[in-house]
Amino acid sequence: PQSDDFVRNRLTHSLEVAQVARDLSRALGSHPDIAETAALAHDLGHPPFGHNGERVLADLAVECGGFEGNAQTLRLLTRLESKTFDEQGRSVGLNLTRATLDACSKYPWGPEESRDGKFGVYADDGPVFAWLRLGVPAAQPPRRCLEAQVMDLADDVAYSVHDVEDGVVADRVDLTRLDSEAVWATLREWYPSDLAEVTDDELEDVLADLRAVGSWPHAPYDGSRASLAALKNLTSDLIGRFCGAVQHATHAAGPGPFVRYEADLVVPRRTGLEMLVLKGVAAHYVMQAEDRLAVMARQRGLLGELVALLAHRGPDALDRAFADDWHGATDDAGRLRVVVDQVASLTDASAVSRWEALRAPRVASRA
Fold first, then answer.
1. Domains by residue range for the chain, with CATH
2. CA dihedral (66, 71, 77, 78) positive or negative
3. What is the pLDDT of residues 263-317, one digit of tens each?
């Protein structure tokens, strides 16, 4: 559970991604409302403990078609979130437009086409996925609409910049003293496919360019208002740098219009590497810190045990909506999917409290 009021959580991150997506979409002349909505929705399917929990559920859900946060987002928007029902009385989610759902499709393919474990739709959500992709030009690999590309870039921009900012404030990252060799080693471990043709010398050159940004700090962060203001200025400058480069490159690539499938977002190679370097800094100094690794191990154990407890207890331990889904399931795989849907719906704190409640001894009632 989060204990630092400054560090971003899933909600504040999503709001920041939405702001970046809207501003970039407007600058491109695209559909800012659609890009913003996709950005607000992009992390809804993430389970407790983020990507750490996602890996646990992916392992446990093999028998029911796997688990992936983006596929879970589509499932939530089109099925699990109760707002609209069809003629048969089945929930069809938020009743969003085809264009909006398509913009939410970061990985518009199923598990059979999974790349590095990433996909955007479960097999039993295939019908709604086919509907939202009607009219999309056939291509291999499947194309993403421009608004989905904007959402994805906005996520990368916010993630790369803000994780470093949080690390600085948490006294885990000192931007004036980076062990670049160690950062590159972590980066190659975390993002091997992105660095296949990138040398350490090029990464050093990219870091030098980032350090040349006027607001890059020359003194360690000390917690003062002046130091925090300087850090915020760096954050704004980096976001503007990345989005400006993408806007310029995209406009230079063609006349537009920059909407749907009429154009693609262009991310300059150098800009992508700059964001990747920042991700490496956060990965090395924050995500791979020994205390963080210990916390993540405990989170994985808790989530695995929670799935087992819910599967064993069945509908009595599920929220009413998921208990109804359990009763409607026709096989063990369907019931496992219900348990996974229930767990994925929880926050970090509610997952811990649910786990604690299920582990507590039950007192037999007197006749």
1. 43-105+107-143+300-359 (1.10.3210.10), 146-288 (no CATH)
2. negative
3. 999 999 999 999 999 999 999 999 888 888 899 999 999 999 999 999 999 999 9
Picking from 66, 125, 65, 137, the residue whose alpha carbon sits closest to that of residue 101 is 125
Query: Which amino acid, residue 9?
Result: N
Nearest Cα neighbor of 215 from 232, 198, 239 is: 232
HEC secondary structure over the chain = CCCCCCCCCHHHHHHHHHHHHHHHHHHHCCCHHHHHHHHHHCCCCCCCCHHHHHHHHHHHCHHHCCCCHHHHHHHHHHHHCCCCECCCCCECCCCCCHHHHHHCCCCCCCHHHCECCECCCCHHHHHHHHHHCCCCCCCCCCCCCHHHHHHHHHHHHHHHHHHHHHHHHCCCCCCCCCCHHHHHHHHHHHCCHHHCCCCHHHHHHHHHHHHCCCCCCCCCCCCCHHHHHHHHHHHHHHHHHHHHHHHHHHHHHCCCCCCCCCCCCCCCHHHHHHHHHHHHHHHHHHHCCHHHHHHHHHHHHHHHHHHHHHHHHHHHHCCHHHHHHHHHCCCHHHHHHHHHHHHHCCCHHHHHHHHHHHHCCCCCCCC
Quote the crossing angle between the two packed helices 180-190 and 200-211, to the nearest 10°.
120
Q: How far is CA 36 from CA 148, 150, 246, in A?
A: 10, 9, 17
| CA distance linking residue 81 with residue 77, whole number of Å | 6
From the CB of residue 130, how many other CB atoms can be counted at a distance below 10 Å? 10
CB 21 within 8 A of CB 297: no
Kindly report, residue by residue over 142-197, the tens digit of the pLDDT.
Answer: 999 999 999 999 999 999 999 999 999 999 999 999 999 999 999 999 999 999 99
pLDDT band for 2, please (50, 70, 90 cuts).
very low
Distance CA 318, CA 282 (A): 37
pLDDT tens readout for residues 69-79: 999 999 999 99
352, amino acid identity? V
